[in-house]
Amino acid sequence: MSKTPSKKLYQLIHSLSGSEKRYFKLFVQKNGVDTNNKYIQLFDAIDKQRVFDEDALQQHIYKGSPIQSRKYSELKAYLYDLILKALQNYDEKTSIDYRLKGMLQNIRVLYKRGHYDDCKESIQKAKKMAHKYEDFTTLLQLLNWEKQIAYTLINVRFFDEELGRIDREEKECLQRLQNLSAYRNIFLQLYSILRKVAFTSRAEIKTQLQTLVDSPLLQDEKAPQSHLAKVFYYRITSLYHYARGAYDDFYQHSKTLIELMESQGHYLKEDVSEYISAISNHTVSCRRLHLYEEWKQTNEKLLQIIPKTYDDKLKIHRQYYQGKFSWCITTGAFEEGVEALDKHLKDVQQFDQALFTRGTFYFQYFQLYFGNENYDQALEYLNRWLNQPKSLERQDLQTLARLLNLIIHYEMGNTILLESLLRSTYRYLKKVDQLRPIERKILNFIKNSTKVYSQKEMQAYYISLQNDLDNLSETGKMGPFDLAAWLDSKINKKPFAQVVQEKFKNRESI
């Protein structure tokens, strides 16, 4: 029996849903395995561990007796295989794909034993299900079985009456299958183009996108020949409009895509992965158009989705919290955001941590803690952001991180440290050719503010920087950080969160 690494077994067990774990217990009982068996003890021990601990597992199984390494390895390997068998059985009962494959196997079994009438009955049941879920490949196999049975029975009358119908159905299946495949290929080409944006020139991207949308399949909403093809059509068009910055069209097409998916709810009982992406994309479109209430409501829909796979669970968690944090940052609900962040940091332990050690999350963590005036925590995540490999972050965000580093140390009153940070930040900006007017103004402000002590003089510096920023072509915002709100909070002696909240309310009332 091959060796099974303990970490591999740990990851498999912790990827199971609650219903899958319950099914595993029922499966082993049904197969005559005692619930006090070492396999079940090991399963339960691993399931209870929040952090993997090999020594603790061995002690739990052997309870002070000498540890038998070979038998322990065999125990893990057997348990791993037993879980896989249980999951296969579970999927067969819950997945349409498995059920259709099972029906095809039943037809073959009946055919070999000469039960042709039962074969025909099974074919009609399978065809009904395959049509409902647009499984064109299975439909082609079922049509072939109809011909095979008629040939075996030497049913000439069947060929006279039904061969034309079967031929039409085969051609229709092949046509719809080809149509679906074409839309899938266009989507994958678009996805590939958008994933390479950082490495491709704007002109080249524009040319590639135009070539894709010139396809005849994208010129008419009636061109898709099946529900699944229509889904791909709207996935393609919504992403295309997003890529070209046409946010009104992006909003309309992403909304239509969700409505289309929800209109055929039986598909969502099988697969929700693309539905999760559609919901997430629609929140982006709402945010771009400042449809704040719809943005919030749409993001909350993510929590109503029942995940079918580990990846679904991961995507729901990741997309929901990114949207939630973004909402709190935009509206100034920093206290609510930190509460959500605390829950997120606890729940995220069940996933691969590498997926969350990204600049996108770190910057959101920073903003929430900064808005809540928890500067120590804000600085911790800003430092993590700065310590990311340079290849993972865009150059402008690296620049922003260093400027925010100055601001947060200024807020913390680290005057002595600011002098050395100013020098290193200046050298960095000079080196990467990012010393633009807005960066110069901020550096000069921090430099001069360290030499001023009276409130009156500080007010003058705040107002001076605000006027300088107003006169620049930049908007007064340092990328995703609201520098204008921070200056307003200093000038008017209000909490940063209050200023952001007031700006949001004024924006909503317009």
Task: Summarize the structure in words.
- By secondary structure, the protein is mainly α.
- Among the domains are: 6-94, no CATH class; 394-510.
- The chain is built from 25 helices and no strands.
- The mean pLDDT is 88.
Descriptive tags:
mainly alpha; 0% strand; 510 residues; single chain
Beta content comes to under 5%
Task: Give average pLDDT, whole number.
Answer: 88
Count of distinct strands: 0
The 3D shape can be described as: flat
What is the first-to-last residue Cα distance? 70 Å
Please tally the helical runs, counting DSSP H or I stretches of 4 or more residues.
Answer: 25
Largest sheet: none
Q: Which blocks of ≥5 consecutive residues have pLDDT under 50?
A: none
**Helical residue percent?**
over 70%
Question: Order of helices and strands, N to C?
Answer: HHHHHHHHHHHHHHHHHHHHHHHHH
Classification by helices and strands: mainly alpha
Rg calc: 30 Å
